[in-house]
Amino acid sequence: MDFNTAINQILVLFIIMFVGTIAKKARIINEGIQNSISVLLMQIALPSLILSSTNIARTAEVLPNLISILIITSITYILTILMCMLTAKGLGFDQKTSAVFISLIVFGNVGFMGYPVVRAFFAETGVFYATASNLVFTAFLWTYGILLFNRQGKIDLKKLLNVGSISMLIAILMFVFRISMPYSLQTAFDHIGKMTTPLSMLLIGALIAEIDASKLVSDKRVYLVSAIRLIIIPLVTACILKFMGFNAMVISICTLLAAMPSGATNAIFATQFDIEPLFASAGVFITTLLSILTLPFTVYMLTNFIL
Questions:
Q1: DSSP 8-state class, residue 214
Q2: Is residue 58 pLDDT above 90, yes or no?
Q3: Phi-psi bin for 212: left (phi > 0), alpha (psi -120 to 50), beta?
Q4: CB of 259 closer than 8 Å to CB of 292
């Protein structure tokens, strides 16, 4: 991973994001269009991107890498949750504040932002590996994530089966059993999947434009969340994986996804259950903005000191 090339790729993504912000401010993108983009991404573009990623060279290291990423991501979520629980308790946060604090750190934007970032660096191979991480994310989000915000609620296992998770499972099974799509179908999914990057970044930009920044930047808690989410977790992940002897691809994918800002789902859950929605919105907003600086920093550390 060349540092200059990596920075240029990140810059392209954030330029598209700012175009989305400007478009929302100029009312080119309204709420109806924004909702349509979100549905289009979740139901069509992302699943197509995932399925098209199966068209990669089936080299000897791909399956071991995939299994490694699944295991690493699962362990990372468990350890991060435990670390956040201890931190929240040590800081004396109440139950509601703790729920949002933990959620903002644990659940990053590994979908809308994660896929475009890894695709920018590693093309379809990166997307395929990211499906493993997103499977784990989906499992934790709709089990632990729901219980975190709604302790009296029940886990809705139906939420685990959606277009995204099903396409992830299909993609992995296709690779394992060496099933290839016909050329026309593969090409169609590839073209549709390429919409994911611009649409995702436009949507993130539009979401940022909705938030009243003046009410959010004064919340000191979000800067602790940002430091842990954007700097500590990715760098600790990279160093531990390097020490354990994992290859550059596994380290890069796990570190980049660990460096994503807090996902918008956190603010959605907080609003839905009326648990510190302003804190949650601030966390999503500030971590996304700060990732403009921290993501290049993470890439710099990866390319110059880790890999």
A1: G
A2: no
A3: beta
A4: no
